[in-house]
């Protein structure tokens, strides 16, 4: 039952994130700051589902024991922590930019460009990597 549910979670996550990513990329009206952040969040979650979940499935299949090398354990643990912190930082950035869009509309409209979005996304990834290294 656990394997089926984990497999279902992985498939739904991959499909949902792929559909939403394609929608944001294809629809011209969605080429705005909040949707770029959402696209980054979808891609990161999709990568986490594709990379980390197969190892979890294999571990559960073998009685919750790790059958891979110690290095792969550290890499998968690092990636799991990385993507969790990235999701937290991106959700924080999305909430701040939504506040700015509502409370300071003129400033937000002038300053929130594609390059600003890229800088915010790079900052979230940098912070995520910095937070993910100490546990590993």
UniProtKB/TrEMBL annotation:
Keyword set, alphabetical order: Cell membrane, Disulfide bond, G-protein coupled receptor, Glycoprotein, Membrane, Receptor, Transducer, Transmembrane, Transmembrane helix
Topology in membrane: Multi-pass membrane protein
PROSITE patterns linked to this entry: G_PROTEIN_RECEP_F1_2
InterPro entries: GPCR_Orphan/Phoenixin, GPCR_Rhodpsn, GPCR_Rhodpsn_7TM
Protein's cellular compartments: Cell membrane
Main location: membrane
One of the record's GO cellular component terms: plasma membrane
Single annotated GO MF: gonadotropin-releasing hormone receptor activity
Parts of the chain that traverse the membrane: 6-25, 37-57, 77-101, 113-133
All residue ranges annotated as the G-protein coupled receptors family 1 profile domain in the record: 16-136
Biological role stated in the UniProt entry: Is a receptor for the SMIM20 derived peptides Phoenixin-14 and Phoenixin-20. It mediates the Phoenixin-14 and Phoenixin-20 augmentation of gonadotropin-releasing hormone (GNRH) signaling in the hypothalamus and pituitary gland. In the ovary, it mediates the effects of Phoenixin-14 and Phoenixin-20 induced granulosa cell proliferation during follicular growth.
Full protein name: Probable G-protein coupled receptor 173
Source lineage: Eukaryota, Metazoa, Chordata, Craniata, Vertebrata
